[in-house]
Amino acid sequence: MTQHLAAPTSGTESVNPGERPEWWREAVIYQVYPRSFADGNGDGMGDLEGVRRRLPYLKALGVDAVWLSPFYASPQADAGYDVADYRAIDPMFGTLHDADAVIRDAHALGLRIIVDLVPNHCSDQHDWFQRALAEGPGSPLRERFHFRTGQGHAGELPPNDWESIFGGPAWTRTKNPDGTHGDWYLHLFAPEQPDFNWEHPAVQDEFRSILRFWLDMGTDGFRIDVAHGLVKAAGLPDMGHAGQLRLLGNQALPFFDQDGVHEIYRSWRKVLDEYAGDRIGVAEAWTPSAERTALYLRPDELHQAFNFHYLGTGWNAAALREAIDASLDAMRPVAAPSTWVLSNHDVVRHATRFADESAEQGLRRARAAALLMLALPGSAYVYQGEELGLPEVTDLPDEVRQDPSFFKENGQDGLRDGCRVPLPWSGTEAPYGFGPAAGGPSWLPQPASWAELSVEAQTGDPDSTLELYRSALALRREHPALGAGDAVEWLDAPEGVLAFRRTARVDGGAAWHGDFLCTVNTTSEPVRLPAPGRPLLASVPLAAPGDETELPADSAVWWAT
Length: 561
Ligand code: GLC
Prior knowledge:
By secondary structure, the protein is of the alpha/beta class. It has helices at 48-61, 96-109, 127-135, 201-216, 261-273, 290-294, 308-311, 317-331, 350-353, 359-374, 455-458, 465-478; strands at residues 28-32, 65-68, 72-73, 85-89, 112-117, 147-148, 171-175, 181-186, 221-224, 280-283, 304-305, 339-341, 379-383, 489-490, 497-502, 516-521, 527-530, 534-538, 548-551, 555-560. It folds into two domains: 19-120 and 201-470, TIM Barrel (Alpha-Beta Barrel), CATH 3.20.20.80; 127-186, Oligo-1,6-glucosidase, Domain 2 (Oligo-1,6-glucosidase, domain 2, Alpha-Beta Complex), CATH 3.90.400. It contains twelve helices and 20 strands. The strands form five sheets. The protein has an eight-stranded parallel β-sheet with strand order 11-10-9-5-2-1-13-12. Alpha-D-glucopyranose (GLC) binds at residues 78, 81, 118, 189, 225-226, 284, 345-346. Alpha-D-glucopyranose (GLC) is lined by residues 78, 81, 118, 189, 225-226, 284, 345-346.
């Protein structure tokens, strides 16, 4: 028996952006990493024309919105998270005309478009920073960044002890226009990414104007990069010790999650609300707790924040349940939806993260994790390729790697290229339809085994991961209540098993008679249970249940009651 025990009864209706109020509350948002999604011009690098041509694939997959990682003019020191011009497209990705075409075509299909905004830092090639360097000490443009004189006799030591997320000091010394050693500037990430000084009104004005530029282009919202980093503690105080990276996301830090950031998001919310159609802000916020994250989502601030606590939770029923409850409990007081995310362009793909014993086990768990995530109330994020069950590529040769953190000792794990390998679409020869020509280039090499994982190879195979995602997303669209509400009702279940009921209803939404149940067996053994209902969808082949059912190891099942 295949995994598909009941086909959805209706197709996916096209909804025009803005038609459904608060569409983001239960939206499934697909992350496109433009360099690695689809290459329209055959140069080996993904681009906006590639994205545009594949929008029908995303529509048919059943997602609601697309988040595009940065495509702005950039020297690519950090794969586009170093922006030289926030209102221009990097030639490698296309033109503003191509961006306009993506937005228009997406809207015509009923898909929304969220763009990545990088406000914590820019590129060292940004006009303001270049002019600040060229004008030398005393330049008013230096006040838009964090320039400081160094410590030590001759200013040869960094102004404080902060460490860069990518490793090494968070400060780089400049040369004065006359060639002598000059002041230092702060960069929480790579030296090519100077941090803005958000106390400066010109920085604040500029970003409100950039928001308007992209809202006028028709985008439906922003994913806000390093949303927790914009404001630094007054006086830039020392941390007092090394090893600061280990504290990210679990302890208060003088450069992250300062209370002052909220005033910025309040002012941005006013801009978003000037526009029709529920334009949203999604925070990438690393904070010490779900409660601190919820502060970004107060009604006059942003709409959603990534749930990194959930992303970091292992394949363990008790830990997952705790993470789910903690998030729902924290978001309830601010009436924001929880979000669920398993992978993105910065972390090891979950099919590999969950593989304690074998790749096969990792994929089984990844498929089950997808059904769990898509059954939870709130909004879910799908990182490109997870719908194909792609594993992390762990054997990239050093000479092809581009992630700046790879080149720094003690930096972020340095493994971020392995989740950024271009997608396989079709055919038996690399780049597997990523670019237009068989045998053509791709900026990172794809494993030979990916021929079997291509969209073409998986389409129509009822046991494939792609068809599992398609079925799950179709059921979710058919039953909007699946993502609605702010609670799950946990049912008694044996150790290592999650069982929960969803009874939320959406006003005016599709009729949903009876309840929906999800069971997840996170153990390596099958577990017998009284059959909770009629199976709708399962992550593994399931024997037809009688009064009892057997939940296979590492599996999830959706049930109708
Ligand atoms: C975010 C991005 C990451 C980038 C960093 C600096 O964490 O997701 O890819 O390197 O910000 O912009």
